[in-house]
Design brief:
Layout: E1 32-36, E2 42-45, H1 47-53, H2 57-60, H3 75-86, E3 91-98, E4 104-114, E5 117-123, H4 128-151, H5 154-171, H6 177-197, H7 202-205, H8 214-265, H9 273-333, H10 345-403, H11 410-439, H12 443-460
Antiparallel strand pairs: 1-2, 1-5, 3-4, 4-5
Amino acid sequence: MLTEELTTEKIKDLKKPVPVNQESPFTFEELFFSVTDPKSNITYANEVFVRISKYEKEEVIGQLHKLIRHPDMPRSVFNIFWDHLNASKPVAAYVKNMAKDGSYYWVLALAFPCKGGYLSIRLKPGSELFNTVKECYAKTLQFEKRKEQQLGDKKKAMEESRAFLLNLLKKEGFADYREFMWNALQKEMSYRESILSQGMSEEKKKTEKHIVPPVLVKVETILSELVLGLENLQNIHNALIGHSDYILKLARSILLLSLNAQISSSKLDQDDMLLSVVAEKMGEQSVDGEKRLINMKENIHHLSDLIAEMNFEIISSKIQVEMTIDFFKELEKRKFEKEISLIKSDEVINLLYDAFMPRLDVISKGIGKVPAYLRDLMNGVKDIERFLLVLRFIHITGKVEVARMNDDANSFSTTFQDLVNEIETADSHLRELNEVVSDNKDSGLMYTAYQERLTNLIANIDRR
């Protein structure tokens, strides 16, 4: 059916379904997507979308996306969702949708701004985080409804509901929605990949060359491997961030101890000048050490930021490439059917390519940086080990001098004892840091290989 033949009823004129406690089922291997214009009118929906929503395709195309909105969804979730899209940022969210017969289906929706509107791809969630989110949503919905009654203002109630939801997520360990979103994608994709690895349908495995460009299949394979490797990157991230705050605290503590030592030395007699020299050396080392420690902290954060970015880009690309492959197969199956949409399938293919192609470049460059960051961290650990070795020598020298002095050296004795305590704690952190970096030193070679393979494939991607 051609675009001009579509006669779309207004959403208010359609019979509103009554929610029922029954799921509209679909499988983990199924992905579905829709394209909307800037006002959220659906311009294209694939076959899986139509089947699960249980509407006819003619009923879906041209409708506002809220056609499938479930009343169990807090409005604040959509407020966060659209804030990202209106800022031209991709966003992911768990969403409970309602089919035409009132049944429900949960998805993790990943949406991107695209030419002429927005592209949204959904997958079936199933991780432990999903169960946590359902509880958070239920609490948020109750809070939102209560605030609407109290305030009599839906907009204000939604703003307070949004803050309530973000606070719930914070209690679950997520600093902000961005961090929650990254973790949700990682957990759901890892869960999905584990399910699919146990057995995929023959239909899903078919990738005839005349239907699907072989290079896309190869790209999807690499992205699948990278998705499985994200857990390793996430473990590196978590281990490093755990030491980052301590490193800055150590720099400040040693600087403070050196200042205390220099203040104490200014009160000593001329006969005790050697201790003053020790205090001065301690001060010099603390300044140098602070630079090394801050540099180490910055390296940790650079790698952690890169890992977080790669987490989102790899998963997004994996979903988009897989969706593109599925769409080629869908087009082949219904190539003799009339098209029911507001945009042509060729345009949809271009939108799908436009979604993942830039991300593949970002991934290729990003994973190429991992080896250098790991080398920098290894060198940083060695630098700090040398710094602590010098501090130990200063500590031993100081103790010798304090031992031959009178009670005037009590403050020095305390300072040097505090210093050795800091050194011992630092040693413990450094051992763990060194272990993390050493255990992953071979990761550098792995990511270099991935970069080469991905770069070669990108060069061979040809839009039909």
